[in-house]
C-alpha cells in the first residue's frame, strides 16, 4: 500500500489530506494550533481520530508521543549513542521497538522491526513536487501508525535542524 503525503504543509495549525496511490483521500492530518506543544491528529475520512500525536513536554531530548483512543501507543525519539543523526527509535507500549533510519530530511528512510522492513518513505517514486510516499511493505502492518511515525520523525528532524 502506498500513501502520498504532501510535504509543504507540515506545519502546526495546518490540515492536509493523505491520499492512496489512486488519489483517494484516506487520512486527514489535523495540525492543532494554539497549543503549548506540537500536536497533530490523524483522522479517517469520516473525521474520527485514529491517532493523536504530540510532543512530550519537559523531556531532556525531543520526544513525540503517539496515542490511540487516549491510550499511549508509542514514543519516538532520536536514538541515543547513534553516530548518525538520522536514526530514531520507536518504542511501542507492548515493548516492541521499531528502528527508523535513512535521510530523514531528504524523505528517504525506512521503518524496520527486528531487521524486517515495514515501510519505505521516499520521494523517488513520485513526480509530484513537495510530496513523499509512504510505502507500507507488510500487509499486516498498521498504515496509520506507520504514517504517524513518518510524520513524527520528519517533525523531530526538522526541529533538530532548526537548532543547529
TrEMBL record:
Pfam family for this entry, one: LOR
Ranges in a coiled coil: none
SUPFAM superfamilies noted in UniProt: Tubby C-terminal domain-like
InterPro entries, A to Z: LOR, LOR_sf, Tubby-like_C
Signal peptide extent: none
Family in the record: Belongs to the LOR family.
Protein name stated in the entry: LURP-one-related family protein
Amino acid at each position: 500500500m502506498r500513501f502520498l503525503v504532501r510535504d509543504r504543509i507540515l506545519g502546526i495549525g495546518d490540515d492536509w489530506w493523505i491520499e492512496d496511490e489512486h488519489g483517494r483521500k484516506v487520512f486527514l492530518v489535523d495540525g492543532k494550533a494554539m497549543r503549548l506543544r506540537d500536536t497533530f491528529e490523524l483522522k479517517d475520512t469520516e473525521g474520527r481520530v485514529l491517532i493523536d500525536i504530540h510532543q512530550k513536554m519537559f523531556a531532556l531530548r525531543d520526544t513525540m508521543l503517539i496515542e490511540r483512543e487516549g491510550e499511549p501507543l508509542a514514543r519516538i525519539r532520536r536514538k541515543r549513542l547513534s553516530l548518525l543523526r538520522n536514526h530514531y527509535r520507536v518504542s511501542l507500549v507492548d515493548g516492541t521497538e521499531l528502528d527508523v533510519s535513512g535521510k530523514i530530511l531528504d524523505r528517504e528512510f525506512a521503518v524496520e522491526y527486528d531487521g524486517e522492513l515495514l515501510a519505505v518513505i521516499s520521494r523517488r517514486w513520485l513526480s509530484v513536487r513537495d510530496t513523499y510516499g509512504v510505502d507500507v511493505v507488510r500487509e499486516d502492518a498498521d498504515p496509520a501508525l506507520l504514517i504517524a511515525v513518518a510524520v513524527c520523525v520528519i517533525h523531530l528532524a526538522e526541529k533538530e535542524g532548526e537548532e543547529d
